[in-house]
Amino acid sequence: MDDVLAWHRDEYTVSTDRSRLDLAVIHGYLARSYWAAGIPRAIVARSIDHSLPYGLYHRDQQVGFARVVTDHAVFGYVADVFVLEGHRSRGLARWMMRCILETPDLQGFRRWLLLTKDAHAIYQSVGFVPVAEPARFMEMVKRNPYNAAPTG
């Protein structure tokens, strides 16, 4: 996807423009999140480089973020979704998810996935449901990967 997309609502914008992303804001939030605590800035940058990022902006300030890891054909994994504390309870995360799901290049997927500990209602409101057949899914989880001592 080469085209930059933008959606506007009141004083807020959701945009796929990589040049607008504020890595300090994104890394600052993710490094203290429950799912990516301690993540190095370089890994955040690399994760953005290899996915489709969505910035949420209040005027010119970044106040939220999400990214989609995708093959642009059949699958999308939504990751690193957040809205900064001072901008919550305005429906912005739900709106950002709707923007993601209506992105033209991401239509016709067989499957969308995401993980959440506490935002089920937001994702259910845009069509996500609990995994129907959890026994079919497998995972490999590395606890605290950013705090591991180097090996070798």
Major sheet details: 6 strands, mixed
SSE topology string:
EEHHEEEHEH
Shape: globular
State the low-pLDDT regions, or none.
none
Helix content: 10-25%
Q: How are the strands of the largest sheet arranged?
A: 1-2-3-4-5-6
Kindly name the structural category: alpha+beta
Q: What Rg do the Cα atoms give?
A: 16 Å
The proportion of strand residues reads: 25-35%
Q: First CA to last CA: what distance?
A: 39 Å
Mean pLDDT: 94
Number of helices: 4
Could you give the count of β-strands? Answer: 6
Structure, explained:
This protein is 21% helix and 25% strand. It has a 6-stranded mixed beta sheet, sandwiched between helices. It is an alpha+beta fold and 152 residues long. The model has no long low-confidence stretch (mean pLDDT 94).
Short note summarizing the structure:
The chain has 152 residues and is an alpha+beta fold. The chain is 21% helix and 25% strand. The chain has helices at 23-30, 41-49, 92-101, 120-124; strands at 6-9, 12-15, 52-58, 61-70, 75-83, 111-114.
List keywords for this structure.
152 residues, alpha+beta, 4 helices, globular
Task: Give the helix/strand layout.
Blueprint: E1 6-9, E2 12-15, H1 23-30, H2 41-49, E3 52-58, E4 61-70, E5 75-83, H3 92-101, E6 111-114, H4 120-124
Parallel strand pairs: 5-6
Antiparallel strand pairs: 1-2, 2-3, 3-4, 4-5
